[in-house]
Amino acid sequence: MSTDKELNEKSYSELHRPASEFASRSDYLDHELQIMKPRRFGLNLPGRDFRFELEDLVPALAGTIGIIAMYSAVMMSWADGLTQAWPHITLGKDFAIEVARVEMLIPAFLFCILASGFFNPRANLAGNHGPMIPLIGAIALAGAHPLALAILLGVFGLLLSYFKGGSKLVNLTSEGVAGGLLVFLGFSGAMGQISKIQSWSTGLEGNFGYVGLIVLAVNIVLYAYLARINKRWLAIPACAFAGLAVALALGAGFDLKFETEMGLPNLNPVYWWGSTEEGWMLGLPNLQHFLASLPFAILAVAMWSPDFLGHRIFQELNYPRRTEKVLMDVDDTMTMCSIRQMVGTAVGGGNITSSWGTYMIPAAIAKRPIPGGAILLGTIVMIIAILGFPMDVAVWPPVMCMALLVGVFLPMLEAGVQMVKENKDAQSAGICIFAAAVANPVLAWAMTMLLDNNGLIGDKERPKNLSFIDRIVIPGGVLVICLIAMLAVGMLEGQYGIKALL
Questions:
Q1: pLDDT digits (tens, 9 = 90+) for 119-162
Q2: What single-letter DSSP state applies at residue 124?
Q3: Residue 220: how many CA atoms within 13 Å on its side-chain side?
Q4: What sections of the protein cross the membrane (predicted)?
Q5: Cα-based distances in Å from 495 to 140, 392, 490, 499
Q6: I need a labelling partner for 173 at 20 to 30 A (CA). Which of 54, 331, 340, 431 fits?
C-alpha cells in the first residue's frame, strides 16, 4: 500500500505495480485508482497516466448497448413529433437510424476517445439525457428546432459550468435528498423496463406471453449470483446476452429482424440542415424556433445536476479512500456535455445529451477510472455505427430492457438505499420520493433541497453550516426556474391539467 507522501510525490508510472503483487484483483484495482493523477485538459497517455484493463470492457460494452437503445429512442421520437408538427415533413425509421449513426460516429470520436479518453479523464462521457426522451414529442409540437435547442442548451450549460454551478448544486444536496432521488429513479426506471419486456412478449403473435416472465426470472437469478460473487460489474453484458439467448431458445427470434445495412451515414451538415427538402427537412432555425426551444433548454440544463450527482455518487460508493483525483468533475463534465451538444447537433445529430449513466455506473462498480473504458467505448460505438446490423440486436427488447434494468436502474436503487443510513436521511429521502411521485424528480429534488438546507426536514443542524445564499438564494432560485420551465412547456398538464404557458 502506497503512503500518502508517495501518492503526492511520485507519478503514476512510478507507483504502478503488476497485479501479481497484490493479494486479490480488487486490491490491484483499488491501488490503480489511488495512484492515478489525470491531467486536466492535458495529454494523458496509456502507460504513463493510465492502463487498459479487462474490466474496462464492461462499461464499454454496457455503455454501447445503452446508448444505441437511447439514441434510437430519441431519433424515433423526433421523427414522430416533427411529422405531426409540420405538414411538409414525413420522417420514419430510416431517418432515425441514419441520424443515430451520425451521433455514434463524430461525437464518439471527439468526445469519448479524444476528450474523456486523452485530454480530460475527469470529465465523464457525454451520453444521453434519458428523462428528456418522453418530452421530445412535446418539444417538436411546440415548434422547437433541434439545432436551436442544442445551441441554447450548450450556452446555458457552459455558463453554469463557468460559474461552478454544477458542483455547487451537488454540494448543496444532502445524502438523504440524493438517496431519495436515486431510489425513485431506480424504482420507476426498473418498473418501466419490466413493463416494456412484458408488453413485448404479450404482443408477439402466438402464445409467447411467458417469454418475458422467463427472461426476467433468469436474469434476476443471474444478477443475484453475480452480486453474491462480487462480479456485479459483469451484469450488463451477462444479462443482455442471457436475455438474447433465452428469448431465442424459447422461439421468439422471429421478432428479431436485421434491417440496418453496413456503411457510413451522410456526414455532410448541409444535407441535414441546408434545406427543407432533405435531412431534417427543417432548414436553419429562426427566431421563432429559438423562442419555442428556450423553456425546454432551461429545463434540460436544470435536470443535469441531479443526473451528474447520481453518477458521481456511484464512484464515491464503490471507489476506495484517497481516490479524489479520479472522481468525475461535475463542472468539467458539464463543459464537455455543452460542447458535445452543440457540435453533435451541428453535424446533423438530434441527441439531447447528459452525463453517460450506462457507462459511469458499471465503470464505478468495476472500480475503473474513466479514460481506458472511454477509448474502448468510442471505438466500439464507431465500429457498430459502420456495421449497422448490431444496432438491430441492441434495440431488441430482451437485450435492451435487461441491459438498462441491471446496468442502470437496479444499481441506482441499491445506491439510494445505501445512502439512507440515519433517521434524518430517511425523512429527507421519503419527502423527495413522495414529491417525485406527485410531480417529477427534478421538481422534487429542487424542493427538498430547499427544505433540507433550511432544516425543515432532515438534519436540523444543517442550516448552521450554510450561508444565506446556500440556504435560500440558490435552492430557491433553482426551484423557481424549474417550476417556471415546467409550467411553460406543460410538463404538469398530463397529471393535473395545467395548460402550457407557451
A1: 999 999 999 887 788 778 888 888 889 999 999 999 999 998 88
A2: P
A3: 8
A4: 57-78, 99-119, 139-162, 169-188, 208-226, 233-254, 287-305, 370-389, 395-417, 429-451, 471-492
A5: 20, 34, 10, 11
A6: 340
